[in-house]
Every structure is written in structure tokens, then in C-alpha cells.
Structures
1.
Amino acid sequence: MKRRVLFPASSRPAVITALVFTALVVSCAPKAIQTEGIILGFSQIGAESAWRNCNTRSVQEAAAQAGIQLLFFNAEQKQENQIKAIRSFIAYQVDVIAFVPIVTDGWENVLEEAREANIPVLICDREINIDDGSLYAGYLGTNMLRQGRSSAEYLIKKFINSATGEFLEDRDAAVRIVELSGTEGSSPAILRAKGFRDVLSRYPRFEIIYSESGDFLRSKGYELMSNILEQFDDIDVIYSHNDGMTLGAIDAMKERGIKPGKDIIIVSIDAEQAAIDALIRGEINCIVECNPKQGPDVMLLSGLLAKGGTIPRVIYMNEVVFTEWDDLSNIEPRGY
């Protein structure tokens, strides 16, 4: 059977350093990773947003290109469904298991079962909290702590004179921030909140007056913002953990005659096309990219693991920050 070779080096910038490392320790040929016939069990958390759907397409398309047989399971936002899927992958005797963990905790037992079956596990997109790190091979995804920090760093540039350290506006009151948080217990919600607070903790006049989970859903972003606007008259900033909630919040603001991006500064994470369009219109002030196109790297790492190779513990995707101060005229279509 003719075996397919996975992806030229130019198509996988996030793991090119990893390949230099792994080529020294894997038993396969250093110039190519053979992937034809590998069976990969992949559990996705759901289809809650354009971002997530793009993430799913990226995995499915990359598997087809690599000649990898993909057993795909949509957990519909339930951890128990993911655990059942992983156990079904073990029973099927797949070569590699990869999954996007809905929450950080509660994975020890099923990962121990995978280890007993000698099936390597790749954690994708969201991180887990586990005492025995040897239960999984590595993590591929986004740097969510960095995303939170970048969001806060934008606000510092927005409100503080870098030369003097003084607030640019003549204001005695605090900068009042409302946070629309992601799913409770998920690594994006935990780390984006932590990174944001780590940076702003040095500036006591930034005050988070309200924080609540919107589960990364546009509908809940709208509901949350509608309720928030009933409770608070003076909001300076909305910090949203994803574009879906941001767009829902913008809908709620517009219904009340509030100008998003003008009356209230908006910082969002993901960089979906709809959010980039809102940034160009001036309705969002800053978007921190969260790169969903992880499929090619998932297949590459799965190929290495299936051959008994070793991968780095953490691999982050390449990501950028878009702000109102940038030239936004040449941003390529996002595809999600």
C-alpha cells in the first residue's frame, strides 16, 4: 500500500521546533512521518460557536489529508459523554486518543485506563489539572494565560500614559470592568481570568466590578449583558472570554442605545470573522486571537505518538493581537 506523508514543513509553524526535537528521539525516518492507516479517536466538546466548528473542520480535513482514520465524537458539552467516548476508543484499540477537555478536573481514571491499554493521549485546545502528568503525552493548543495577559496589556496602553505612568484621562474613579467569563471549571475561563488579573493587579484603579460565566455562548452573552445593564449605570470596559459572548453583549448594548467600542471599551478573545468585522467598524477595541486551526498539528503529533515517539509536553499555536490602532485593511478572511 502506498503510504502518505504528512504536510510540508511550511504548513505547520506551531510545531516546527518540536519536530527538530522529536526527530532525534523517534524511531521513524526523520524526514517524514508516515500516517496512512493510523486510527485516531478524537473527542470534541461540542459545536457552540463558529470557532469550535472551525476547530472541528480543521481536525477532520487534516485527518483526511494525512490518511488517518478518524473516529470523531461530539460530547455535546458533557464531560460524562467524553469519558464514554474515550472508553469506546480504548475498546476499539485506536492508535492514539486526542480530546478537548470540557473542564480541567476529573480525568485521572479514564486516562489510567488508556495507559493500561498502551494508547498515548494528546490533550488539545484546553488544559487539564492532574497530579500524574505521565497519564498523557503532551498538550497542543493556545496559551490562554497569555491571552488574558494580552487583554489586560491592551487596557494599560488604552488608559495609561506609558511615559508618565499616569492615566490618560482626567478621572478620579476606577476603570470599572465587567468580565464575561467562559465555562466554569474550564481552562480557558480559569487561565484567561488569571492572566488578566495578574497584569492589572499592579494597577489598583482597574476594578473588576462583576464577573459571571456565559458558557462561551452568544445567547448567554446577550442575556448576561442585558441583566448587567440593568444593574450598573457606569461601566467602562467589557472583558469577554470569547467572541460569541462579545457579539451577544454588543446586541444587548445596541438595543439600549449604547455605542459599543465608544461608550464602553470592549476586549474580546478568539478573532472570529464577525468579531474582526466589528473591530473594523469600531464596535470592538481589541481582539486577542485564539487559533482554532490545530488539525494539521494534531495529525503530525498523532503520527509521532503512533510510532512510539516522544513529543514536547506543551506546544502553543501561533497567535496575534488585533487592536483599534492597527491597520485592519489587509486582514485575511478568518474562515470561521
Note: Confidence is low (pLDDT under 50) at residues 1-31.
2.
Amino acid sequence: MNDDQSYLPDWAPKEGGDAFAIKVRKGIEEHTIEKKIHVKKRVKLSTEDYVRGVLANDKTILARTITLIESNSQDHYEQAREVLKQLLPYSGKSFRVGITGVPGAGKSTLIEALGCHLIEQGHKVAVLAVDPSSTITRGSILGDKTRMEKLSRQPNCFIRPSPSGGTLGGVTRKSRETTLVCEAAGYDTILVETVGVGQSEITVRSMVDFFLLVMISGAGDELQGIKKGVIELADALLVNKADGLNTTKAQLARNEYALALKYLTRATKGWETNAFTCSALTGEGIPDIWHVIKTFETITKKSGAFYERRQHQSIDWVFSMVENYLKENFFSNPDVQGMLPGLKENILDGTLLPTTAAEDLLNAYFRERKK
């Protein structure tokens, strides 16, 4: 190697001579190449832009509107409220179906099969899928849209996965507002898929017209069905996966649940809850369950139970918003925030009772409010 082109590294022994074989070859002169990366900034939308986009069913703006509404930022709160206020007159014209069930019951597959069936009949379908948020990382997978691959390609369908954000009851804190926005965009059928963890999925009952509980065979007998909880709130029980070798088991499960329902009070005045079977995989029973839902709509609208429920839901919405506001206002209070670290330490080392800590926090909050 030519000496003009190479040299010994700085860390090489001075007395090494030619015996030290490692040498550094001279490189070429560096030339700084400036790369200009053009990042397209997201245009900030005005309130009018949001409203016009939703009413025109622009799916991009529709998604951004829901993001605005779900935001916890105080900067977005006022604009979100104004957007909802302007969209309110265009809402309320859809039929809302809540769908819940145990994990593995096939809710997403069922919704895809039902959604495709509805679109074939000329309906416009919005799917609000709620995904559980991790209590550790606070994140969510939001994979329901991936499961509904066929349905997501339909032009008359809008699928919005949202994190539960730790909200109990199987829905998100802003599920009601999201429903309103989708109705304003022209979707006549709203399918709300809950987290689905068991018998506590009851909040969705206060925001839908028809509540469908998806079951699977082998989940329990008629005694399990009598247990109070989500079952007594359902307008129909649907045993899914009634296909292949599981058909007989699904039918037996349906019979047991139908027997159990006779012991429960009706969830909706003038409507008798019953159990049915279907296969979301083959599509068997999907048209039948939709016929049941439409029959429910006709009967309840004729009796007035449909409109009465909607009125009660509006009142529930008010109190739910009050509860959310009080919670956020409490934990954003400076005095409360200042006390929390010390209280946590005292609770952990056993020098302070949790009940006393709660009283101290409330007293600090109300003292600050009186100033």
C-alpha cells in the first residue's frame, strides 16, 4: 500500500514498525450534500371546514372531526363543542345497534357479515369499534378495522376504531358524540362494538336503540343466563359460530338461553327478548337477525318506547358529561395536584388511610373553589 494513501492509526504502538499490519487508508474529501426535505404541513381546519366536510361525508374530514372530539386538549374543546352544536340538527336519524359479547365470540366477524348485508340492501353503515386500552402503556392495538377487511373496502361504510381510554362500560368517553357526527355524515345505521369483557358492558345500553349480546356455545347453562348483568339488558341473544360440527352445540346453547330469558324482566317495554343462532363465517342467520332488529324498530316506534328511550338517553348523556367534567376539573386543580405525590407516598408506607387521603383531597379541592 502506498504511503501517500495510508497511515498508521493513532492508537498503533510507536515502535511497531512494519510489523504492525493495520493501517488506515485515506478517504476522499467530504462534501456536505444538503437534502431539502419538504414536509407537507397538515392544514388546520376551521369550524366551518369540519362541519362542511362531515355533511359532505368527506371521510378524511369525518375522521379528523372525531379525532378533534376525542382530544383531551383544552385548545380543542371549544372548537369541538361548536362543531357538535352545528351538526346536532343533522343527527338522530339513524338506527343504533350496540353489539357486545365475550372475547372470542366473533363480534368483529359478525359485524362485517351484518355490515356487508346491510350495504347490499342500500344502507350506509358506520362501525364504531372500541378497543381496550392497556392499563400499563395506555396504548391500544386498534385492530378491528384490519379484521373487517371486506367491509372496510365498501364505499358506503365508515369504520372508526377508538381506544377505550380506561372508560368502563365497554365504550369510549366520546362514543355518543362520535355517533352524532356519523349520523350527520349520512350514515343511517350505526353499529357500536364494545370492548367485550363480560357482564359489565352496560354503558352502551344507554346510547343505542337495540342491544345485541353475542354468545358462544359452552359459555354456561341456563343458570348462568339468569345471572343479573348484561344479559338482562339485551334485546336479543345471538349464539354465533353455529356452523360445521358446532351447529348442534350452538342450537342447544340457544335453547338454554331462551329458557333462561323467561325468568328475566324484559329489557324493552313491549318486546320479548329471545335467543337466536347464526354463523358469521358462512352468513347463515345474518338476514334473520336483521329482520328481528327491524321488527323491534317497528314495534317500539309504534308503541312509543323507541322515542322514550331516546329521551332518557339524552338525559343520561347530560349527567355523563357532568361526571366527566367534574373528574377532569378535580384532577386538574392545582391544590389537588400538589397534594397527590405526598399522599401517595403516605398511603404506600402505611401512615395514611386511603379514606383519609380522599377526604383531604376533597377538602383541598373545595377550599380552592371557595377562594
Note: The beta strands are 6-7, 24-25, 95-101, 125-131, 157-163, 189-193, 210-215, 236-239, 274-277.
3.
Amino acid sequence: MPGETGVPARPWAGYDPRMGASRSPDPQPRPGPLALTGEQIAAISRFPDQNPNPVLRVTVGGQLLYANTSSAALVEAMGAHVGAPVPEPWLGSIREAAKSGEPFEVPVGARTFEVLGVDVPEFGFLNLYGTDVTARKAVGRFPDQNPNPVFRLDWDGRIVYANPASGGLIGGIGCAVGGSIEARLWDRLRAHVESADSAVVEVEAGGRTYVLLPVDVPEFGFVNVYGTDITAAKELERLHRENERLLLNILPEPIADRLRRGERLIADRFDDVTLLFADIVGFTELSSSLRPDELVAVLNEVFTVFDDLVEEHGLEKVKTIGDAYMVVGGLTDPSPDHPERVARMAVALAARVAAIDAASVLGIRFRVGINCGPVVAGVIGTKKFIYDIWGDTVNLASRMESTGVPGRVQVSAAVEERLRARFRLASRGLVEIKGKGFLPTWFLEEETPHQGSRSRSAHQARTTAASS
């Protein structure tokens, strides 16, 4: 008996687990701490054979006792066979894995296995359980080679991995591997994942702008987040908007579109437009009494009011020349009510400028002249180009301003005819116009309330329709 000889009982001695029966002619199991029948042993050995993952058994002495069919590649890499000793350093790795509970990696050609050792002292051997982690290793390797940020989150919003390229992004959001990202950002990312929405999430981090695409990886229980630095693209977008704004400051939008499409010569005839000229009264004396920065600041405030009124009434600013401002209606908008819109702007001008403190203190007033009729318009220049308008209609509109009265809006007969049903006008009588002789002119006073409301409603309806 083992207890009598002092030799530890080894219930597997003399037994080949692949055969499922004792090699001993004695059908009775040997006595020891645990006695199993042949059928029980055969059943224990049968289960690993059905396991799709590698399963091996090594005796405490280092002999390869068993290997299932799925472990053939591992056995070949080990350089052993069932019944033979396990060579070093394999045996050392096996024993360390069984002791620490941590698996060790085994490369087998293009594949990689993790092998976990489990001590089974009741049977006097170590079970080895192998897992093919080739795909998981590949998933882990690719982000390290990605020049764009890639990091992984668990479902608590904790960063479990970040590739080298994501250092600036991760640090910029105040986090690090092992820490949790800000709750609102995690909520946004998780919402996209849970809804299977492919839209990206934009974030600012470390003075740069990123878009983040979260992708669920359910096989591994984490969320991959793919980042793209769009700082340069955002800056280009900003510069494009700025260039567009500057372009539209000197050109009507339809004309700017034509230039962008490559038209080299832009010249058009318009049969019916309305022109307004406005000029600051006594500007020469005013400019001599102010410092340059004060003068420019006042002009900027005043002409900003002009710009706002032009936009409100659906008109186009043609240009400013010193203290003069030129506006046209009907150039890009074919609607026939451009005389009313220009007149409405002129009526509102005095009150809006008077609301500027500096303009009120300095007593700034305008002479305003309006005329309507046919013109020719086009773009002049290739580098410092300008959109300008020519024709007799332009000349007469300028004369309406220059022969006008400070603080009043003087209009031609053509304008009076178009406005008389909608505005109150006062006849000034005959005025000598250079190159024209004496012509009748009128002062525009105010809009007739009931007519004006209908006209404004029509313009507002067109504006709404154009923007929708």
C-alpha cells in the first residue's frame, strides 16, 4: 500500500488517457487519494477531444501526457510528442503559468496562441488550455500603426487603450489610459454607438479640432474610437468663408458665382434698375477737424448702417467712394418693386444715422439722390477688380444727389412716377442739371402707410421664399 511504502499514490500511473482504459492487466483501479473507474477516466479524456481549442496535459515531472486534436500545431511547435518529455523553455513557461494564473504566448507560424496552465493536483498533472488570439493581436496591432488617433473605451467610458497618435487628443480632453473620459462626451459617443449612427462627434482638444467616429466591437466588449484631426480643414473652411465674405463685399453674389465658374468678361445690360447716391454734407471740413483714426471710425459706423439697410431691403451695394455710397436695386432681383425698396431705405436712413452717437454729435447729414432706368454693369480689372455701373441713368442719379438739399432725398421724374401711389412726395420745381438743362425734381418725404404695408409684405414674402 502507498501509505506503507511511503511512495505517493499516482492514480494515473500505468494509464494511457488516449485509450480510456488501464494498460495494467489488473482491471481494478489502484488505491490512492482518488480512485476512478475506467469509464470515468475515458469520459474525462473524451471531453477535450471535442474542444475546438487546444487542450494538453503535462505530468508534474514534465512528460507530455495528452494532446487533443486541436493542439496539433502547438505540439509541433513544442518539438515533442505524447509520451515524450516537454523541452525547456516550454516546461518553465508551463509551470510559471500554472503558478501565476497568467497565460503565456506561443507564436506558431502566422498564428499566435495564449496558453493557460492549470494545476490539477488530484491527478498529478497540469492541464494546458490554448486560445488562438491571432485576430485579437491583429486588432491590437493595427491602431499602433495608424497615423490617426485611435483609442478604446469600455462600456463605463474608461480608456483601456490609446495608440501613440492619440496622445495629443487624449491629453487635450484631460484624460489618460486607465481614466474615464468626460461624462458628456461619453454620452454623445455611446448614443451614436447604440443608435448605429455613423455620424461623427466633433471635439476641441489641446487647441486642435477632431472628429470622433465611435465603432462598437462587441466581440471584444469595447468601443473603438477613430479620430481625425480636422484643424487644418477647419482653418481652410474659415479662410474660405472669410474670402467669400470679402468677395461679396465688392461683388453681388450672382456676379461672384459667375467669376468662380470662370467667366472672364462679365458685362450685362439691365433695362430697369433704381440707383441711390448718398454723400456726407461738409465732409471736407469734417475730415480736417478729426484725427485719421476718429474719422475712419465714424465713417465705419455710418457705412455699417448703410450696409445693414441694404441687406434689409434686398438691395446691392455697388461701392463707396470716399464719403459717398452707391446702392442699386433690381440688378440681381428681377422683382419690379425695386424703386419702392430703394425709397424705403432712403426714408429710414436719416433716423438710423442719427442714432449713432458720434454722427449725432458731429451733426452728420446726407444729401441723397435717386433715379431709375437702364444701365450697363460689369467687372473691371483682373487683380483688384471692381463691379461698376455705367450709363445716363447713373449720371442723373449722381446729379440728383449733388444738386440736392442736406437732409433731403431728391428724386427724378422717373422715380416720382413710380412712387407717387405709394409715397408722399413734394415738388421742388425745376432744377438745373449739368448736361441736361432744367429738370423737374421732387423731395421724397414718407411712405403712405396703407400702401407701404402691402408693399413690404410682398417683399417679405419674396425674401422668405428665396431663403427657403
Note: Residues 1-36, 452-468 have pLDDT under 50 and may be disordered.
4.
Amino acid sequence: MEKDETSQADARGGVQVVSRTAAIMRALSAHPGGLSLTAIATEVGLPRSTVQRLVTALEIEGLVDAKGPNGGTRLGPTVSSLLATAHADMVVFGRHQLKTLLDAVNETSSIVTSVNAKSMVLETMTAEHSLRVVLSQGSQAPLYATAGGKALLSLYEPGTVERLFGTRLEAFTPHTLTTRAALIAELEQIQNCGIAMARNEFTQGLSSLATAVHTGMGIYAFEVTFAGARFVASMDETREFMLAHRYQVMVESEACQQDWQAGWLGLSSGARR
């Protein structure tokens, strides 16, 4: 009996550790720039000493980096590695497509996927400006508050929004959509025009445009993020290119899938039919 009680206590303790660790990882994913131990403790509602112990263990495994550029703790390199592995086909295929987009619009460009009810940066390339946007692989934001997230939602099956969100949505800035009805109405517009937009909706001073593509590897979004007033100056030209880019991605992803299938069968790419 004592052994059973001890085992149950150990199991409960193990579950608690996992739960607390997951809470820390979620907090860091929402703050790609990093958080101090005190800020993490406040965010997850744990004692600072507990957070420090868990962060130390996570750092050993490479899941967090406790020496971020601003002295805070942020997600570590192992997270990016796991992320790339889970979407390996799209990462391999999409890098060339992402570079094409970056070269054309000269603004930070990213491939975005979804995790639960959040958009997540799968791959990103930074444009070189004196005032530039730097995103982190693995960084997340609510799907309804980013252009990439809204683009993804526009391609998901009917009823997805109702299953993911309540009637009220959390506001992150004065510009965030705050009702599910408003989100559904905007998604209908995105389905008609093919372009999603977010202006200061998750972070003040950042605006973005995105298109979503349905590939054999899944549904992904290509997102372009602008700092400040550059958005207004180049919005129309960027929208036009992104629509053409989306079509090209769909065509090339289909050809890529055919080539991969031919390779698995030991055929040359010219023998696909």
C-alpha cells in the first residue's frame, strides 16, 4: 500500500512539473524577445525560485536560452530544431519561395503555420533596414490578431472559428478584432480577395499582409511584416506581388510533390506520368 501511495504521489509530482514547464514554454513563445525570471514567474503564477529551477533544466536541454540579447530568457535552439523537423518538407520547399518574396518586397518575410489557436513562425528572413522587423522561429500569436493567422483561418473548413474562439476575443491593442462575428466577416473578405491584413493588431507599430496556400504538405501562410509608415507606402505593390507569388507557390508545390513521389518510386522526374 505504501508503495502504491508513493507511486501515485510521484506521478502527481511529475504531472505538475510537466504542467509548470509547459506554462513557462507558452509564456516564452508569446514573448519572443525574452522575459526575466521575475516576469516569467508573474506570467505563470509560480515562485521565482521554482521558475529558476525549471528554466535551468530547460536550458540544459537547449529548450530555452537564458542569455538572450536583452538579458532575458527566451526559447532555445532545440525548439527551432523540433519545429523544423515537424514541418521538414515545407521548410525545404519553402525557403526558396520565401527568399523570392523577400527579394521582391524587401520586407521581413515569414512562413507561418498554426498551433492550436495560434499562428507560429515556421521560417523567417529579415529585410535589412535601419528600422527593421526581426521575428523569431517558433514565436506565436493568436490566429485572429495576425495577417498570417487570418489567412490560415480563411482556408480552414467551415465551423473552425466557432470551435476555436468564443464570442469575445482578447484585445492586445486598440486595433485588435474583439468579436468572433467581426472575425468571420473579415475572413469572408479575405476569401474573396486572397489577401489578409493586420494593422497594429497584435503589436503597435507592426503591420502585415499574408496569403495562404493549400499544398500537399498542408496549409501554410506567407506573411510580410512592416515597421511603421513603410506599410502605407508599399501596401498596394506588395499585395499585387503576393497574389502572384501565391499562385506560383501552388504550382511549384504540386510539381515538387510529384518529383518527390517519383523519387520515392525510383523514377526520374521526367517519368512521373
Note: The longest strand covers residues 206-215.
